[in-house]
Amino acid sequence: MKKRQYSIYLAPAIILTLVFYIFPLLYLCYVSLFQWDGLGPMKFVSTQNFQKVLADRVFQSAFKNTLIWILSALFLHIPLGIVLALMLSRKPKGWKLMRIMYFVPNVISTTAIAFLWYFIFHVDVGLINNVLKAVGLGNLAHPWLNSLDTALISSQIPFILYVGLTMVIFLTQLSTIPESLYEAAEVDGANGLKRDFYISLPLMKPAIATNILLNTAFCLRNFEYPFLMTGGGPANKTTNLSLYIYRQMINANKYGVSMAAGVITVIMGFCIMYSVSLIGKERKGKTYD
What we know:
By secondary structure, the chain is an all-alpha fold.
């Protein structure tokens, strides 16, 4: 009887997973083996689409740019979230207001933020260049989004605004650490940074793994910033995997090639998820006592 009840409770989740995840994933893999323009008959080409994708220099650039996004999230975004969380965990004056201010960008549309920063970096009407000109530093004005040297990093800067969610996850993890551990550390003479390095950071391991997963997922599906701020240019310098897949499907009508790139992106995501699962693996029944 209990097994039947469990089946009833699990049925909606299983159906949703099949309809919105498993079936689309299988269809993605299926179409990636065909040459198809989205309307006409499908022609089986085996792995030719994957060969075309891997040999495409634009895809190689998109893959590299996506890796740069992921690395910037891992080595800049997440460490910044840790620092902010450790600072606010000490509850300085105005910490509640700061927590709200850091989190607010996460409830604003990504499209709106992308447009905002597009006009901040705009070569003619942009805030940065006009401020530089106003203070007599017009020689430093720069086409931030149109330059090969600065386009990618300029399109990544708005991502920093989303550090609030990363910070909140770390704060939640910090709130679960028993105060007795910190009291014992103080008795042993560990204060300030030592307390953070030897108690807080090791016990934040599950939250670090969660944030790695969430930030990596965002970087893999990130579309608005390169599409709205730079259009993937200049010279595909800011094109990422999401934008590459979009262009192959919508602009070139190469659905098979687009799906093949999608399969590669999914495999990349699975590999990262597996690595994160190893990083965040905790022993069952482990306590802080």
